[in-house]
Amino acid sequence: MSERDVGTGGPWSDAPVTLERQVLRDLGFFGHYLYWHAGGRGGKHAILVLLLLNGGRLPQREVLERSHITSAALSEVLAKLESEGLIARTRSAQDRRQLDVVLTQEGEACARDMLETKRRFEADSLSVLTEDEKRELQSLLERVRAHWEERENMGRETECRSNSNRG
Question: In this structure, is residue 103 part of a structural domain?
Answer without folding.
Answer: yes
